[in-house]
Design a protein that fits this description.
By secondary structure, the protein is of the alpha+beta class. It folds into three domains: 82 residues; 121 residues; 147 residues, Aminopeptidase (3-Layer(aba) Sandwich).
Length: 399
């Protein structure tokens, strides 16, 4: 912005100097005088260095005014980009939760939109919203718009307008096929990111040849005397919450806590009582592994935190996922998302998988999944990235 403004000021000053040179002689002398005038250097106003030749004082003054205007405009854009809150307010959090409760059944990542280190832009009718976080000069939206799909266009348009007003490039991470189609319709380009593994609780099973490695891991942990507990976070006593948080931090070690569209970032928060926690308990009574899952609509759950002790039995993560699926009926779960298959256990290889589709060309019904499996009832949904038509703007989608 600043460079462009100064360049414009210089070009206009040079053109005026060429048209009204006064006593300036030659292109080089006029170009140098115009450059000094653009930056307000008084050497361009007297005769030093120009063999007594001078440009017009009014051109010098006009150049200074244009450069000052460019500087003020750049500061205004910077101030406008930084003054917006980067955290959800309590009212915004409640409004997002209401949208998720009403229209969040199809979005496995919807609950992650309640991370508090983000900002939100609502559609004009406030029936949909785009949640984003600023990373440098980029406004990075997380997943699909939240809320009524009929209001998605208004929410996406409002978010893009907000980003450009603040001098940011719009981008999206981990949108679905339906979400990416909407973003593409507003000028973004879609790029494949990865697959989402989804377990169907009604028909999940560890039997079958494809599941043999998982079955063996679970059996090994059981024989080692491990037991699993599956509970709602609201059912944990305060001291249990403190212990879980302590262990999760300790097992993470020095690694940076990462996550944006698939991580909540507030383990043990009282606001997340509906979240599920699965713990693997060793024969001596100590916790050796834990998984947490956020709500996915009314009958689903999505993986959030995955931790294990370095001393845990090999296969403890698979053991905990199997324990959750065993308890799914009692918890009212019909589906469990493990997000990226590379980060989730029990994501068996599908026996039949449809090719990933470009969001713009997908012809399947809204919410349909590209792949199905046999005995494991595990499905995969493609996640991808999209970029806007503007250079350097990117966004992501999951199909």
């Amino acid at each position: 912005m600043l460079v462009g403004g100064l360049a414009t000021s210089y070009v206009i000053t040079l053109l005026l100097a060429l048209a009204f040179p006064r006593t300036l002689v030659g292109l080089q002398e006029k170009a140098l005088w115009s450059l000094l005038a653009t930056f307000g250097d008084l050497a361009g106003y007297d005769d030093s260095g120009f063999n007594g030749h001078l440009g017009h004082a009014w051109i010098f003054t006009l150049a200074g005014l244009m450069s000052a205007a460019a500087l003020l405009w750049a500061f205004a854009v910077l101030w406008r980009a930084q003054r917006h809150s980067s955290h959800l307010s309590a009212d915004e959090d409640l409004e997002l939760r209401a949208l998720l409760l009403r229209d969040g059944e199809d979005d496995s990542l919807g609950y992650f939109a309640t991370r508090r280190d983000r900002a939100v832009v609502f559609s004009p009718d406030r029936r949909a919203a785009v949640v984003y976080r600023t990373q440098g000069s980029v406004s990075v939206a997380s997943g699909d718009p939240i809320g009524d799909r009929e209001s998605w266009p208004g929410a996406v348009a409002a978010w893009i307008a907000d980003a450009r007003t603040r001098g940011r490039y719009p981008a999206v991470l981990s949108a679905s096929a339906a979400g990416s189609t909407e973003y593409v319709a507003h000028g973004l380009r879609a790029l494949a990111l990865g697959d989402e593994a989804i377990l169907d609780a009604d028909s999940f099973s560890l039997s079958g040849r494809d599941m043999k490695p998982i079955r063996q891991a679970v059996t090994r942990v059981r024989r080692a005397g491990y037991t699993a507990q599956v509970r709602r976070c609201a059912d944990l006593a305060p001291q249990e919450v403190d212990e879980v948080v302590r262990l999760a931090d300790a097992w993470r070690g020095n690694d940076t806590e990462r996550g944006f569209s698939m991580a909540l970032g507030r383990l043990g928060d009282p606001a997340d009582g509906r979240c599920l926690i699965v713990t693997a308990v060793a024969p001596d009574g100590s916790i050796r592994g834990l998984l947490t899952f956020v709500p996915w609509g009314r009958r689903g759950a999505s993986l959030d935190v995955m931790r294990r002790s370095p001393d845990a039995e090999n296969g403890v993560t698979e053991f905990m996922v199997a324990a959750l699926m065993d308890a799914a009926e009692g918890l009212g779960l019909r589906r469990v998302s493990l997000n990226s298959p590379s980060s989730g256990a029990c994501s068996a290889r599908p026996t039949r998988s449809a090719p990933a589709r470009s969001p713009a060309s997908s012809t399947g019904p809204s919410g349909s999944r590209p792949g199905t499996t046999s005995s494991t009832a595990s499905t995969r949904r493609t996640r991808s990235t999209t970029r806007t038509g503007r250079p350097g703007c990117s966004a992501t989608t999951r199909g």
